[in-house]
Write a structure and sequence with these properties.
The protein has 578 residues and is an alpha+beta fold. The chain has helices at residues 2-14, 39-50, 78-82, 107-123, 130-145, 169-181, 188-199, 277-295, 324-332, 366-383, 406-414, 441-450, 456-463, 467-493, 497-531, 537-543, 546-577; strands at 16-22, 28-34, 58-63, 69-71, 88-94, 210-213, 219-225, 228-233, 236-242, 246-252, 255-262, 266-273, 305-306, 316-317, 418-419. A 5-stranded mixed beta sheet has the order 2-1-5-3-4. A 5-stranded antiparallel beta sheet has the order 6-7-8-9-15. β8 (228-233) and β9 form a beta hairpin. α10 runs parallel beside α14 (467-493). The two termini are 27 Å apart.
Length: 578
């Protein structure tokens, strides 16, 4: 009896696992989940923990053992998606940026989006000119520490915050000046709301760049925003397609295709190459989800999408959530007392140390911070071609932030290319990636070189400017020089003849297997028809042939008797057991 009880307990333990989700304020939510639990169950637990109702804008992100990022699919089992052993580590992030974040119904939702955009600003995904950067940083200061107080905030207090990957002393003084003189009296809620209004009109609001290469082998970054599909290359936005212009997204292997139809029935096909097939599939799925969320009027219009024109090839995927219009309509029906937001008790952000949170008061010294920035700049180029799905950028001093206004946004939508920065847009891996449960030094070095996420211990090493970042930069510089020297021809040949042959062989094998399967099904159908009582002319002709009679008496009849015998035996067993 005791052994049976213990064995049952062990089985129950095997059916459960621990899961840790890092939230947007960098606190961690840990829970125990059944092994067959689906992603929706975990997401609902987190939203209940946060008292969040407008949850459709958010998602759970994780990294697989190959260091490729993914969004957790809520309709599938968590354990089957993770591809690694528990305990699992994931993070909550904004998946679909609200087109107008200031118009969100509840303050708790606006606050979480504020944390995400503040993170984007620090990691270089959200670019702006210096004047806008100073205003955004001042809003963060006002939300974090309140009104300026000479007794609490000594000279240079703004330098205790790290708002951007890199900024100058002049910008720090401007941030402090705005905070002292222009934002007095604003509550944290008001400061965050103004921050969102300022951020939403920037060119790269909502951008989550995916590193790729064009057909000439030149680096490019593809992104999906609330307004459409964007391609960033060099220091320009070379393509912008509104969601109603995008007609189809396809991928095969590392190749990603965008089909669009613009004014005057002008059709466009854009082709890019991802670093790995897994990164390309992730890019395709992100595009399918974003297009469905922002473009469709109702979730009932969502259809299963195939990555190929042939039904037996490629991947099939279907967005399973509500669309943006439905989310806004549902939000308007929310009627409850606003949930309390505990800003003061937050764990300080690892990406933006705050002077209000005790141990984080001592920020990285100015000289050390500059050394960190030099190390980041050295490693940027080696990281820009990585498979990292959310790369970020190190911004230079001065006016290297991207200008943006609402009127410019309207004009830019109609133009084929727009300058967004004085230097190349080259987002790379940064200090706060999606968490990965890895602590091996060998893996740490390989992830820094490949631009993949690293763990918290490795983040601290990267802040100190470890040599591996510099070595990665040397490797990136060498590879860049080689690519630029060989030119377009080498860029095209870099796909590899072997890879093209492998694709062709796989396509032929797929076609052969499908053909054999169809022939087998047709043969079974023909046998069933000929052995049936249907009185059709061509079936009578087949039944009268010597070959059919031989097949009928020597194979079909013995096989039918054997099946009947087995069925009677199974039926007898079932009757006896009753």
């Amino acid at each position: 009896m005791l052994s049976r009880f213990m064995s049952g307990s062990i089985r129950n333990l095997d059916r459960e696992y621990n899961c840790t989700v890092r939230l947007l304020d960098d606190t961690e939510y840990t829970c125990t989940i059944q092994r067959d639990a689906k992603g929706q169950y975990l997401f609902d637990l987190i939203c209940h923990h946060l008292n969040l109702l407008e949850k459709d804008y958010f998602g759970i992100r994780y990294v697989d053992p190959d260091k490729q990022r993914h969004w957790l699919e809520f309709t599938k089992s968590i354990s089957k998606q993770m591809k690694s052993q528990p305990p699992f580590t994931m993070c909550l992030r904004v998946k679909f940026y609200p087109p107008d974040p200031a118009a969100l119904k509840e303050e708790i939702t606006r606050y979480l989006v504020f944390l995400q955009i503040k993170r984007d600003l620090y990691h270089g995904r959200l670019l702006c000119k210096t004047s806008d950067a100073a205003v955004l940083a001042a809003y963060i200061l006002q939300a974090e520490i309140g009104d300026y107080d000479p007794g609490k905030h000594p000279e240079g207090y703004s330098s205790k915050f790290q708002f951007f990957p890199k900024h100058s002393e002049k910008l720090e003084r401007r941030i402090a000046e705005i905070h002292k003189t222009e934002l007095m009296g604003q509550t944290p809620e008001t400061a965050e709301l103004n921050f969102l209004r300022k951020a939403q009109i920037l060119e790269t609001y909502g951008v989550d760049p995916h590193p790729c290469k064009d057909v000439s082998g030149n680096p490019a970054f593809l992104a999906f925003t609330p307004f459409g599909f964007v391609v960033l290359q060099g220091n320009k936005r070379v393509h912008f397609l509104k969601w109603n212009e995008v007609t189809k997204l396809k991928f095969e292997g590392k190749t990603f295709h965008i089909y669009a139809s613009q004014k005057e029935e002008k059709k466009i096909i854009l082709t890019y190459f991802a670093p790995t097939p897994e990164a390309c599939k992730h890019l395709w799925k992100c595009g399918v989800e974003n297009q469905a969320f922002y473009k469709l009027e109702k979730s009932s219009q969502v259809r299963t999408v195939s990555s190929s024109n042939l039904f037996f090839k490629g991947s099939r995927f279907r967005y399973s959530g509500r669309v943006a219009k439905e989310v806004m309509e549902q939000s308007a029906k929310i009627k409850r007392d606003p949930p309390e937001i505990h800003r003061a008790g937050l764990v300080p952000s690892r990406s933006c140390p705050s002077i209000t949170h005790g141990p984080r008061l001592s920020s990285v010294p100015r000289t050390r911070r500059r050394a960190v920035h030099i190390s980041i700049m050295e490693g940027l180029e080696s990281l820009r071609d990585s498979a990292h799905s959310t790369p970020v950028r190190s911004v230079s001093h001065g006016d290297s932030f991207m200008p943006r206004s609402r009127s410019q946004a309207t004009e830019a939508c109609g133009s084929s290319e727009a300058v967004i920065s004085d230097e190349a847009y080259s987002p790379s891996d940064s200090v706060l990636p999606t968490p990965v449960a890895e602590h091996s030094l060998e893996l740490a070095v390989s992830r820094q070189i490949n631009g993949a996420p690293c763990s918290i211990e490795e983040e601290k090493e990267s802040e100190a400017g470890t040599p591996s970042a510099g070595e990665a930069g040397d490797l990136g510089a060498d590879s860049r020089a080689l690519v630029s020297g060989l030119g377009t021809g080498v860029g095209l040949s870099s796909l590899g003849e072997t890879e093209q042959v492998n694709k062709f062989v796989l396509s032929v094998l797929r076609l052969l297997l499908v053909t054999i399967g169809l022939l087998f099904v047709l043969l079974l159908l023909l046998i069933i028809l000929t052995e049936s009582d249907l009185d059709i002319a061509f079936l009578r002709d087949i039944r009268q042939t010597p070959e059919f009679e031989q097949f009928h008496y020597e194979y079909f009849c013995p096989l039918r008797r054997w099946f009947a015998c087995k069925l009677r035996w199974v039926g007898g067993l079932l009757i006896n057991n009753k």
